[in-house]
Amino acid sequence: MKIKYLILYSILFFASVNAFAQSNNGSVSGKLTDPITGEMIDFAGVAILNQGTEDIVKSGTSNNGGAFKFTNLPYGKFSVRITYIGYEKQTIDDIEINAEHTEIHLGIIKLKKSGNAMAEVTVSEKKRIVEFGADQINYNVSQSLQSEGATATDILKNVPMVSVDIDGNATISGKRNTRIFIDGKPSDYMTSNITDLLNVLPSDAIEKIEVMTNPPAKYSADGEGIINIVLKKGYKLGLNGTLSLSAGTLGNYNVNTYASYKGKTFSLSSSYAFGKSESNTYSSSLSQNFLADTNYYRNQYGNRSGLNYGHNIREGVNWDIDTTQNLRVTANLNINRSTGASGSDYLYFDENNLETKMRNQGNSNQNQSTNYSFDADYTWKRTNGDQLEASATYSANTSANNRFAQTLYLDANDNPLPGSLPLNQLYDVDGRNKAFQFKIDYDKPLGEAKRSTFNFGASANLRTNNNNQDVQGFNFTNQVYLRDTALTNNFVYNEHIYSSYASLTLKTENKWQFRIGGRSEFTDVNFSVSALPAPYNIKPYISFFPNLSASKNYESYSFGVSYSGRIGRPNIYSLNPQVITNTSNPNISFGNPGLSPSYTQQLDLSFSVFGHDWAFYPRIGFANTTHIIERITTPIANGAYQTTYDNLGSSSYNTINLYGNYRINKKINLNGGGTLGHMVYQSSNTNSTLNRNGFTFQGKAGVQADLPAKTAFESNFNYYTNTSAQGRNKGSLTSSFAMRKSLYKNKFRVRLMITNPLGQSSSTTLTQSDTFNKQDYYTVNTRNYSMSVSYNFTKVGNKKPLKGI
């Protein structure tokens, strides 16, 4: 961006601080009736209470038709308390007003006749598992019975528009660059490996998962979308919690605990999870090279077994300083350990498909990582509706990866090749990373009706990654290990990102909503490699990202359009020029320090139509990316392949998403849909095979059923396939079935679950260019039969649960 545009934007940004504002404008309505006669109940007392403090926000009475409605409510969680002579006092909990759900309709509420005056009954409004908004999908974890005793990775597999590949990496609609956030903050500030954290993070500690296809301007512009995991905060008064144990035939065990206590001003929450899992994978690779001077084949067959276990501890303190101020402090500790062993055979063939030699490689490894983070969040709500939020996060992690590799060189008869000694190597890779993030956001009411909103803020994100690789090779002559200077290296990466944003939301009386926002980010990156004489100092750059949307709500349908700019910064793995393995290895990989960031412009059209028992949500997406970053594989001498990263040129990705749900009756609910995308690559590289196109597809289907005797059933099916610059990746159909039985007034629950009874998880990757064709097959043993037992405890007074309204 040119300097003059930056100056203009800054002037507009700071000038707008005193001119605009934000408000939270919500409403709650319902109608009261007698359960026997159906007559409307007039002049009943109705009050809106803050669910966290039980302070009365608004109060009134039902009109002469039994109806009530409260408007101009702020965002938050509330309870509705209803009292009337001759009927039991009734409380409806878990009513949440937010940007996507500003109007809450409770429908017809049947009050219960009272035998003795004012006993209190609690009604919990059952949420849908999936809630769709114009720019966001909410997956309510507590509503899925498969979430009990599960981990975050297990839950993500069932979220609409989310794909989880065979390695546990989650993306939105097959997009290449999806960011994972936890409580609105980037997860890479909590752990060095997000997959390890998600594999042990207990689902019992998760409130919901938000899929943001067009994140608001307050969120980082990095990535093509955000998956935000919202953790429970413990809002209910008193003590409540969950303990669950699970075990499976694959050797997987999980222990999950979550507890929270809330008094009038203080609340405490705590969670602990332990997970152990075993894995067995099988792979094969068939390749054919077409080089200028030869035509040969190489086949690879391998297997790997591994043992993984981890702990995750999260502690939180929430303090309501007074009626306007709140302070929340959380700490998270994540520890992961793993061991594994693998073996591979590389068979080489000439142009007549006759074997010429073989390479046998065995590996054993031990890995460990420790990650910890500290968060402090402060909120100040002024009496005029202004709200200030400030947060600070510090995180650090250490990792140690140790590997022993032995390579044997054999001829076609499995005899040692003359003059070729075995290769024994020791790899010691240590990581030391730390990060700090500071954010401040300010919201202020706009206009007398407080219907429109304005918010602005700034943030600073600072991090340092230190990766040290030490490699030693065995010298058979001297019978001693010597350092391999070609592979030993130290890589230090520093990244500073400073951001500011402003966003204006306008709401009209006829239910139109417009959002106009922008975000600017200043990026300063430098890194050094010990083997090179000088550090890399990338020239600092400033980027601006517009964020626009418009939507309209009707009685039974709504539609919206949104546009935003995003950035894809090269990460430390794609920049690091260190060669990870010996240059004589058949597969060599390294980064490209000359990478530039990619920029994406994306446009989404959304539509939703719904009835009393069904809903349908189609949406269309258009995205164009310049300087796209992709992994590129090329053959080199002696049948080896090297993989690195490059800015290929541009790509366009168009998608259509069709999702919906249908409630057959009060007991059975169906949901499902799919995403079909078309990818087109236009390469600036001289390799013409990178100019290609292809289709991606992801499909999901599920059913939930409430059966007699407090029994429930749920099943889910998933499938995905996608296209890359050099080929395509095809997954397999995965499935899961679960049955749950509730006992002792729902305090105990027993769940039986079957994962992938129809087949193992597998993937097939096809890669090709002018000089080679390559097919990779990968299978993971995932067929599992598991059982979990959970216990829920609650002590919140003398409230009695009511099953329905």
Automatic annotation (TrEMBL):
It is found in: Cell outer membrane. GO terms for molecular function: carbohydrate binding. Residues 383-791 form the Outer membrane protein beta-barrel domain. Residues 1-21 form the signal peptide. It holds the Pfam family CarboxypepD_reg. One of its GO terms (cellular component) is cell outer membrane. It comes from the Bacteria. Its main location: membrane. The keyword Signal applies. Keywords: Cell outer membrane, Membrane, Receptor, Signal. PANTHER family: PLUG DOMAIN-CONTAINING PROTEIN (PTHR40980), TONB-DEPENDENT RECEPTOR-LIKE BETA-BARREL DOMAIN-CONTAINING PROTEIN (PTHR40980:SF4). This is Outer membrane receptor protein involved in Fe transport.
